[in-house]
Backbone:
């Protein structure tokens, strides 16, 4: 029985294969646009492949260059690192010195300002004293002039009084000039001309 079922199935399977219809699709004839698009797609694919392959040697060379530059920078860093430490120490020293100089300059500036203020005060006090001395000298001069004028007028009054009290002729010794207006002047010597 098994044999009969097995052969029967085989026959059915064989018939099924013959009954299967294969269909082939016939492609429609492509137009010029499809042809141009196909060619452009092929060219684009080839361009992408070339552009993908071309950077590989450039990247390899870049990697070599990067390694050389990195080694060179490491060497330069090793050489510059002590210089940078010394430069940092120098910068710290310069900063300390500039701070000290700034403090000294501020102190000098404050001292100069204080001295300037004291000088201005002294100059003001001296000017005030000079003004007081000038005022005192003016008062002394006025008093001296007043005393001189008073003395002169007193002497003149005494002289006139004496002249009036005594006659001027009694006091003359004959040597006096008659044209003198004032009888109390000393006689002047007469000068002889030289021969």
Residues:
């Amino acid at each position: 029985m098994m044999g009969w079922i097995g052969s029967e199935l085989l026959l059915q399977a064989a018939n099924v294969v013959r009954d299967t219809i294969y269909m082939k699709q016939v492609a429609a004839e492509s137009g010029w646009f499809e042809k141009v698009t196909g060619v452009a797609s092929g060219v684009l694919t080839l361009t992408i492949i070339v552009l993908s392959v071309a950077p590989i040697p450039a990247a390899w060379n870049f990697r070599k260059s990067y390694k050389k530059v990195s080694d060179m920078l490491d060497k330069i860093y090793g050489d510059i690192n002590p210089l940078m430490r010394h430069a940092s120490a120098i910068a710290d020293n310069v900063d300390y010195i500039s701070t000290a100089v700034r403090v000294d300059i501020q102190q000098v500036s404050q001292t100069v300002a204080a001295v300037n203020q004291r000088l201005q005060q002294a100059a003001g006090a001296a000017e005030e004293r000079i003004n007081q001395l000038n005022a005192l000298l003016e008062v002394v001069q006025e008093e001296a002039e007043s005393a001189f004028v008073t003395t002169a007028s007193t002497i003149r009054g005494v002289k006139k009084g004496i002249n009036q009290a005594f006659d001027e002729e009694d006091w003359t010794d004959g040597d006096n000039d008659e044209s003198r207006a004032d009888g109390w002047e000393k006689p002047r010597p007469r000068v002889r001309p030289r021969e």
User: Anything to note?
Assistant: The helical segments are 2-19, 32-53, 55-165. The two ends are 208 Å apart (CA to CA). Confidence is low (pLDDT under 50) at residues 171-176.
